[in-house]
Write a structure and sequence with these properties.
Number of helices: 15
Number of domains: 1
CATH topology: TIM Barrel
Distance between the termini: 49 Å
Order of helices and strands: HEEEEEHEHHHHEHEHEHHEEHHEHHEEEH
CATH class: Alpha Beta
Oligomer: single chain
CATH superfamily: Glycosidases
Radius of gyration: 21 Å
Shape: globular
CATH architecture: Alpha-Beta Barrel
Length: about 475
């Protein structure tokens, strides 16, 4: 039986609150990864008298540092979950220069999507991480893999063919710390590839490429790695959970979501209790309504969810965040794109009503009018909790200046002080959906990362938005 189904069965048999914690099977650790030894000492992310003044925690609707100051983020997604499992763009520009570009716009946060396969391969190799050249050749083939390796080394002369994935990530985390930029490891996918779809094998707990024990193992590994990097103050559980169309026997509903995210948060908190943990929602991370509004998990509405047929004969089941030792470490995260299946993004009023209903009610803001009057579905939250908009995106062109959704999200986040991370930094991918050297017009950079794809919207859209957010500075 899949672990997710076991969790579901136990939860359905348990009356009362979903603060019950499923018993986790011991993780296989017969090949304990060897820690990479680096020449310089790396400051950790514990309490300190220097930036970022960690550990961070939550206080009502806010994230605060150890000095009690509210922390606000405006960030970018920097993908590293493709088949090479090395951050994109490093063959075009040095890590230092990429980070300087990020800071020049005003961003102070980078959500770095990684694949759990990155950790799986360390265990498969007897505890040794994968070197740069091996990673490139495995993903791109010998000729292109060797070529891109040489290009990365030329742009980043401190690295060699033997520099490993986590050593590269460590260097980026340290360079970010020197610039006052927070790094957020995001489990973007399990098997490295372009994300996301219902058929990619990574959609839901127990999907064909979503092994739950390996997921826990990967979370623990990254949480431990984060101890050596003060820029890493948070990490995610899973990106854009969604219904699997590969295995239709998997139970896709609120109960399975809460059981699995609870167990995974226990894993991270046990490994590194300083870290904030972001919880993503249903339907490509559009919906956390059952958690924020405190509704019965057995009967709460959910787009395309598996019904609990005997739900009304069972005792109600609720999630109580305050019942957990990490209650001051959880942040809700939501996404919204123009291709949403069930949200009318052509109307700002209705988009704001959906954002409120799906989780931003946890900020304690007023129900947006007139949208909530139209939908009649804007319940108040039962608990104040931080909520971030961790993904949204658009072509980097003039539609940012006049499009309904781009303007709506800009106004909503500025008005309510909502931290956000745009998709994405990458103007091209070394490999994506089988193609190599693939450009992306939704990326901030141009194809070869030598400049911005649309300098006009950098100056007229992104920079003013960030200034209006009054983000936390170094």
């Amino acid at each position: 039986m899949r672990a997710s189904l076991a969790i579901l069965s136990s939860l359905l048999a348990t009356p009362g609150f979903a603060s019950w914690v499923p018993t986790k099977p011991p993780l296989a650790r017969d090949l304990e990864p060897k820690r990479q030894i680096v020449a310089r000492s790396r400051p950790g992310n514990g309490t300190s008298g220097e930036w970022p003044y960690g550990p961070l925690s939550t206080r009502g609707r806010d994230v605060v540092n150890s000095r009690g100051e509210v922390v606000t983020w405006a960030g970018v997604n920097w993908p590293m979950s493709g088949e090479t499992m090395i951050p994109e763009g490093l063959e075009w520009k040095s890590a230092e220069d990429i980070l300087d570009d990020v800071v020049s716009v005003g961003f102070n946060y980078i959500r770095m999507g990684y694949a759990i396969q990155m950790v799986d391969e360390i265990y498969e190799r007897g505890g040794e991480d994968v070197p740069l050249e091996v990673a490139m050749i495995m993903a791109l083939g010998y000729e292109n893999g060797t070529k891109v390796t040489n290009e990365i080394i030329a742009k980043n002369p401190g690295w060699t063919r033997e520099t490993t994935r986590f050593e590269i990530w460590s260097d980026i985390a340290d360079l970010a710390a020197a610039r006052g930029v927070y790094i957020h490891p995001d489990v973007h996918i399990h098997k490295a590839q372009w994300c996301c779809s219902h058929t990619d094998g990574n959609a839901w707990f127990g999907d064909i490429d979503f092994d739950i024990d390996n997921w826990h193992r990967g979370l623990a590994y990254v949480a431990n790695w984060a101890k050596d990097h003060r820029s890493v103050v948070s990490m995610s559980l899973r990106n854009e959970l969604r219904e699997s169309w590969n295995n239709t026997k998997l139970v896709y509903n609120w109960v399975t979501l809460v059981g699995n995210l609870t167990a995974a948060t226990d894993v991270i908190h046990a490994a590194n209790p300083d870290l904030l943990v972001t919880w993503s929602g249903m339907q490509y991370d559009q919906d956390l309504s059952a958690l924020t509004a405190g509704t019965n998990l057995l009967t709460a509405p959910c787009y395309k969810c598996t019904a609990v047929r005997d739900a009304y004969r069972r005792e109600p089941l609720y999630f109580d965040l305050d019942a957990h030792p990490w209650s001051d470490k959880v942040i809700w995260e939501l996404h919204l794109y123009s291709m949403s299946e069930d949200i009318d993004v052509a109307s700002c009023e209705l988009s704001e009503a959906a954002l409120y209903r799906n989780g931003f009610n946890a900020l304690g803001i007023e129900p947006p009018s007139p949208g909530c009057g139209t939908t009649g579905d804007c319940p108040a939250a039962t608990r104040l909790t931080p909520v971030v908009l961790s993904e949204f995106g658009n072509a980097q062109d003039a539609t940012l200046l006049n499009g309904t959704l781009p303007q709506c999200l800009k106004d909503f986040t500025t008005r309510h002080g909502v931290s956000w991370m745009m998709w994405s930094l990458a103007g091209s991918y070394r490999i994506r959906s089988g193609g190599q050297g693939v450009p992306d017009t939704w990326g901030l950079t141009n194809d070869d990362w030598t400049g911005w794809r649309d300098p006009d919207t950098i100056e007229k859209y992104w920079k003013p938005w960030i200034r209006d957010m009054n983000v936390t500075r170094h």
